[in-house]
Design brief:
There is one protein chain. This protein is α/β, with parallel strands linked by helices. It has 3 domains: 148 residues, DNAb Helicase, Chain A (Orthogonal Bundle); 236 residues, P-loop containing nucleotide triphosphate hydrolases (Rossmann fold, 3-Layer(aba) Sandwich), CATH 3.40.50; 83 residues, Arc Repressor Mutant, subunit A. It contains 18 helices and 16 strands. The strands form 4 sheets. The protein has a 9-stranded mixed sheet with strand order 5-4-8-10-3-11-12-13-14, with helices on both faces. A 3-stranded mixed sheet has the order 7-6-9. Strand 6 and strand 7 form a beta hairpin. Helix 1 runs antiparallel to helix 6 and helix 6 packs antiparallel against helix 7.
Amino acid sequence: MNAPAERLASPEAEQSLLGGLLLDNLAYGRVAGLVSAADFYRDDHRRIWRHIVGLLESGKPADVVTVSESIEASEDKDETGGAAYLGALAQNTPSALHVERYAEIVRDRALRRAIDAAAQTISIAARSPGGSGVAELLRQADESLAAIGERALPRYTARPIPWAQLSGKSPPHRLWAASGWIPFGHLTLMPGAGGIGKTLLAQQWSSCMSCGRSFIGDTERPLKVLFWACEDDAAELWRRQIAIAHWMNREISDFDANLAIVARHGLDNALATMVYGRLTFTPLLRELREQAGDLGAEVVILDNSAQIYGGDENTRHSVTYFANGLAGALPGKGILMLSHPARAAGSEFSGSSAWENVARSRLFLGSKLPDQRAGYEDEVPDDVRYLARRKSNYSSKDWRRLTFRGGVLVPDAADELGSGVNADRDGEAERLVLIGLQRLQGMQLEPTDGEQTARYLPKMIVDYRLASGFTRSELASAMRRLMVASKLTRAVVGKYANRAPKYGLKAVL
């Protein structure tokens, strides 16, 4: 005797699978390739599954309320137990941690029922007098088992690109929230030491993007921005926004439509944490996704990784899993996440190199350009910052120099409205070298291009605080360009005590 179909079903696993998805929508990505509606034994569970999947695959949240509304608007409203049953599913499922195991049980029982049904069909046919011959019965059995075998194969959640369908067509243009700096659809990481001004820079950047104002990189139109500030209270963010509004020549009310800054200081901000040794997303990720959806946010800024990532930052798999889950929760959006570097000298981010790999763009905010921190001891004014584009899959490396002024960070050559146009630094450095030479000579000093001497011009400009924020490396490059262009030359500028000629630099008028 074959076991009844009821004995080959697990209503408990079906309920736990549905409840887990209601608790954590991101868990769908872990089970979509395992089960389908046909795998559920109970009809009401099949119907609920279809509504959950329909909402999720259309980019909408699927919780007790939204699924209930979807069912009420359909022909299934009297077939699923209503909102009360959905609430019980979510309430009786402790977490979505084990949804994959629930899905495996549902799928296993569905395949067993299919095998049992096929066996019963073949058994009945074999016992029928005058029925099909043995060869036909074997063919039917092979076809039935082959069909079940195909169902047992993994279902793909992503399929190969259909090249034939794309023949002769042009791909869409790459989209940027800030051209060259923050791409849409990917994670951008911006590390920087504590107190360097990351949050201020992010708040300025988000303010500019919300108004369609270019700041660092071009922003072509006003964008809706959601900024989770996890380390500042509302009063501090308010004070900062007043300074930003003044710099932009705007009223603070101008930011109300497109800029949503959420002060989360003092709250639990972990989007993912370790549960039984495994990185698991928390319900807060769903809150972030829903808030971004409700606001229509196109850019999401998270300050910072220490607050939102509760896993081991040195574990490559956990870091990659987190970044992929974050991108999956915020599809198509530009994501900027602030972070801190490690304490080691020269470090530009903390944790596994997976952070470098998962971010399509990585920036660095510091008081010096990263490549110069270890090799140069130039004095840089305390109010100067450098934002360097250290990695970009879609653009070249670049950097911007900014200065604290009036409570904001002002890029070089930016007008009072914050246009963000970068200065011709090479030309400015050359001008500074010529002016520095003139002032040093006015002090009866005789600079030279000899790098190993105490009179090395770039070093003297820095030592006498004439560098205006330029590094010795920049000044040395400018000096060499001037010499190649014959605007600066080595010449005899005097004599030593032994009457040997003393060489130095002179400007060529």
